[in-house]
């Protein structure tokens, strides 16, 4: 079924760039309809008829796509199986996967989120929602690439550091701090996204007091980045802060992120929640817990998070 039209076809948006999308669906009608929608949004689309075909294409040429949009139910390999396979491969594990589903069953959605799905879209998706989700995935790709590029610049020096602490409060300070904290890890590529989620959450919610509903609304309206920049300049938040630290111990690296904000109820966000599968935000902490850290805990008020990454040990023969 074609995407429901809420707005006239237009470009991908001022805050997005044209990207390569691998679209996967065994239903030819749905495939062509979504392909047309994505192309009208300004993107380049490659197609595959099932998960196995898509995985083979990406394994042969991982650079062919910036993100994957896949149907949930397909023969040979379904969308959930494809997501799991992509997240196991070093060359595709950071690629956002958007899953299209006809029915948002809670257990199925939970399985998809735990497998690493970036977003769930219920068919037929509204074109405006498709544009918002794809733009969000594009920003995620760009941010990860920048973080990994920054990481390469100082990883060698930071690998020998025993402890480090930073104090920050502005959104533009998050990425430099995160890349330096990740540089202490034996596997920085695994850790960097989880550290980013914790520090970003502390700045957005602890310092700038954005709530989940407000952020989701601003993101859907395409006003999130502007609102973030404007609020960070307000004098009423001048005394707010985030402290991000890392300490190396014998068993591994401990990452601590604390803020002096009002705190929040972290419990619903620590695990995959189907009710947030179609939300434009609210999955970062769950992704950090499932994919970045060996252990993640919060204090009672939600003002402090501690992530642990076990030390890799050399195998002695």
UniProtKB/TrEMBL annotation:
Residues that the record marks as modified (4-aspartylphosphate) are 71
A Pfam family matched by this chain, by name?
A: Response_reg
Tell me a GO biological process for this protein.
phosphorelay signal transduction system
Q: Which domain of life is it from?
A: Bacteria
Alphabetical keyword list: Phosphoprotein
Q: Which residue numbers delimit the Response regulatory domain?
A: 20-138
Could you tell me what this protein is called?
Response regulator receiver protein
Q: Which organism is it from?
A: Teichococcus aestuarii
What high-level taxonomic lineage is stated for the organism?
Bacteria, Pseudomonadati, Pseudomonadota, Alphaproteobacteria, Acetobacterales
């Amino acid at each position: 079924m074609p995407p429901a039209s809420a707005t006239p076809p237009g470009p991908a948006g001022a805050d997005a760039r044209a990207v390569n999308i691998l679209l996967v669906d065994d239903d030819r009608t749905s495939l062509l309809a979504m392909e047309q929608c994505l192309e009208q949004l300004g993107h380049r689309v490659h197609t595959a008829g099932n998960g196995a075909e898509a995985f083979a294409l990406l394994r042969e040429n991982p650079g062919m796509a910036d993100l994957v949009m896949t149907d949930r139910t397909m023969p040979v390999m379904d969308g959930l199986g494809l997501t799991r396979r992509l997240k196991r491969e070093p060359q595709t594990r950071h690629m956002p996967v958007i899953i299209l589903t006809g029915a948002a069953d809670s257990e199925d959605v939970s399985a998809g989120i735990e497998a690493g799905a970036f977003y769930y879209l219920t068919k037929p998706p509204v074109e405006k929602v498709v544009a918002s989700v794809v733009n969000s995935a594009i920003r995620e790709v760009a941010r990860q690439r920048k973080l990994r590029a920054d990481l390469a610049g100082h990883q060698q020096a930071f690998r020998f550091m025993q402890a480090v602490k930073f104090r920050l409060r502005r959104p533009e300070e998050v990425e430099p701090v995160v890349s330096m904290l990740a540089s202490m890890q034996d596997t920085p590529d695994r850790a960097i996204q989880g550290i980013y989620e914790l520090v970003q959450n502390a700045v957005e919610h602890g310092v700038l007091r954005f709530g989940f509903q407000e952020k989701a609304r601003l993101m859907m309206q395409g006003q999130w980045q502007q609102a973030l920049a404007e609020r960070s300049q307000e004098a009423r938040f001048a005394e707010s802060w985030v402290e991000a630290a890392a300490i190396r111990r014998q068993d591994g690296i401990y990452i601590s992120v604390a803020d002096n904000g009002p705190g929040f109820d972290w419990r619903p966000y620590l695990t995959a929640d189907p009710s947030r599968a179609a939300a434009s935000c609210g999955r970062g902490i769950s992704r950090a817990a499932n994919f970045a850290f060996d252990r993640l805990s919060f204090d009672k008020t939600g003002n402090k998070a501690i992530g642990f990454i076990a030390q890799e040990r050399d195998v002695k023969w």
